[in-house]
Design a protein that fits this description.
By secondary structure, this protein is α+β, with helices and mostly antiparallel strands. It has helices at about 15-25, 30-40, 45-60, 60-65, 70, 80-100, 110-120, 160-165, 190-205; strands at about 130-135, 140-150, 170-180, 205-215, 225. It folds into 2 domains: about 5-95, Orthogonal Bundle (DNA polymerase, domain 1); about 105-225, Cytidine Deaminase, domain 2 (3-Layer(aba) Sandwich), CATH 3.40.140. It has a 5-stranded mixed β-sheet with strand order 2-1-3-4-5, with helices on both faces. α2 (about 30-40) crosses α3 and α6 packs antiparallel against α7. The longest helix is centred in the middle third of the chain and has 23 residues, at about 80-100. It starts with 15 loop residues before the first helix and ends in a 9-residue tail after the last strand.
Length: about 240
């Protein structure tokens, strides 16, 4: 068996930390970024190899972010402390996404909506339906979770959505939910819920601006979200 190569034994130009300093974090592979979090002290495997094993086991960063401390420690070389470090890193990413919402971002395109809500929705393994409450300038007042469903079903009542909008004095709302399957294509139920909420909003003079469904990007589907407005469901 070929012995594993430890990070300290790698040529300096191949070490993840040195590469990050010289070329920037975006130049590193996911396994190398994970290796920096894992740091040193691994016996038998380099941190980069352990990073690769984590990605192989969990397949995506989304699944890795969802993994429990116990699940992470199944991978050889990941003990309690290293599992905690990974969990802390993903939690910081989610909190950073939450901070962005506090800056009252402008949400006038599906892309901006998806960028804002992606990290929160990445970790869910069931459908979560959220409403973004906006002011007259299309800036965020706050985001609220309305309901959680099963893997592919969610129940939403207009009363729950617009009660929040009225209490926040919102001029408009944006609907957001995730598809745990990864395919953001709207279901018939998604389309029906959207149309019901549009009609309710018209009666209350609160605009429903869009319904964005977040999934996962693939080689054949470069965008990880769809906009029901862009698909034409707001004009029928």
């Amino acid at each position: 068996m070929t012995p594993s190569i430890r990070i300290k034994d790698m040529p300096r130009t191949e070490r993840p930390r040195e590469r990050l300093v010289e070329k920037g974090a975006d130049a590193l592979r996911n396994a190398e970024l994970i290796a920096i979090l894992l740091r040193t002290g691994l016996k038998g495997n380099s941190a980069v190899q352990v990073g690769e094993q984590l990605l192989q086991k969990f397949a995506t960063l989304e699944n890795l972010a969802r993994a429990s401390l116990e699940d992470l420690q199944v991978v050889k070389g990941v003990g309690r402390d290293k599992a905690i470090a990974l969990k802390a890193a993903f939690t910081l990413a989610r909190r950073m996404a939450a901070e962005l919402r506090q800056d009252a971002p402008l949400l006038d395109t599906p892309e901006r909506i998806a960028d804002l809500m992606r990290e929160d929705n990445r970790i869910y393994d069931v459908e979560n339906f959220q409403v973004l409450l906006l002011n007259t300038r299309r800036r965020l007042i706050r985001a609220d979770t309305i309901s959680q469903g099963t893997l592919d079903t969610i129940l939403v009542h207009p009363r729950e959505v617009f009660k929040l909008a009225i209490s926040a004095n919102a001029a408009a709302v944006v609907l957001v939910h995730n598809h745990p399957s990864g395919d953001p294509t709207p279901s018939e139920a998604d389309i029906k819920v959207t149309r019901d909420l549009i009609r309710a909003g018209q009666l209350l003079k609160i605009d429903v601006l869009d319904h964005v469904i977040i999934g996962r990007a693939t080689q054949d589907r470069p965008k990880d979200y769809v906009s029901l407005r862009e698909l034409g469901y707001f004009y029928t």
